[in-house]
Amino acid sequence: MSKLWQARFFTTVNQLRDLPDTQVPEIAFAGRSNAGKSTAINILCNQKGLAFASKTPGRTQHINYFSIGGAHIAQHRKDPTIVDEIECLLVDLPGYGYAEVSGSAKLHWQRLLGDYVQRRDQLAALILIMDSRRPFTDLDIQMLEWFAPTGKPIHCILTKVDKLNRNESVNALRQAKAKLDSYVDEDGEGFPFTVQLFSALKRIGIEEANDKILELAGVSDDEAAAQVELIEMEDDVEPDDKQAD
Questions:
Q1: Would you say residue 198 has pLDDT above 90?
Q2: pTM for the whole thing?
Q3: Predicted local distance difference test score (pLDDT) of residue 64
Q4: pLDDT of 239
Q5: Residue 84 CB-half CA count within 13 A
């Protein structure tokens, strides 16, 4: 059981001045609207409604934070999170690139996203979600180029790989790696960019993504596994004494 399964809603903000003053690592998820960002977050955290997928993609204008740690696995979802025990925060950034969004909203998002990914000291890494059939749009590249100068890692997740056959999947991954390898710093050194294939429908790449996210956050799954084992032992002894969620 992954520690990501402990994820709980923490806070939502619409302005940089309202960002939480926590000092734990933040792992941000960014991606074009309809790339499957919310679905990826939900399946990685094993929760159907954690990240909200709007019926009108591109309408969500807020940065949503989810905490890892600060709440034990069996805790009721309405019980308060212990802020001092949070180990890292997952950050769901607004989706970008949806045609029906007004110009003023697009400008707001551009400023919000650009300032956040370039200036947020707590941001440890960026998870860039892209549709495997249409990766590296102009806006995806803009996000890469905003973030690259920080020198921090980017892990690209190519979603909806179930829509591709085997050869197409292999080619998509190879081309993505080549694209990422083309980015180098002033000394000709490559940036810490990685990429993988992913499908929520076929459950492809979930373990790989989980392990990478926890690695980037500096979080271990050992404690979560121990808690699960303890809960299972307690269930064996007292099967009728279970807390409803």
A1: yes
A2: 0.85
A3: 94
A4: 41
A5: 0
